[in-house]
Amino acid sequence: MDINSIMSSNLLQLQQTVQMSVLQNAMNMETVAAVKLLEDMPQTAAPHPYKGSAVDIQG
């Protein structure tokens, strides 16, 4: 195996490693942004659909 093919193989592996690193960082940034959006959402509870407004009388 000559030096050019060794270097070419190493370069390909390095490119793949860098691509995976960039992809991982992008995913982490998107995850952080999504968590921030969820944390910033108002935390008001939804009203119960019928509790307190309907009376069930069986007798």
Q: Structural class of the helix and strand makeup?
A: mainly alpha
Distance between the termini: 93 Å
Low-pLDDT segments: none
Helix content: 55-70%
Order of helices and strands: H
In round numbers, the mean pLDDT is 88
> Judging from the principal axes of the Cα atoms, what is the shape?
rod-shaped
Global Rg: 28 Å
Number of helices: 1
By DSSP, the count of extended strands is: 0
Proportion in β-strands? under 5%
The largest sheet, given as strand count, sense and whether it forms a barrel, is: none
Protein name: Motility protein
InterPro entries: YjfB_motility
Pfam families: YjfB_motility
Helices and strands in order, then pairings?
Blueprint (H helix, E strand, L loop, with lengths): L2 H38 L19
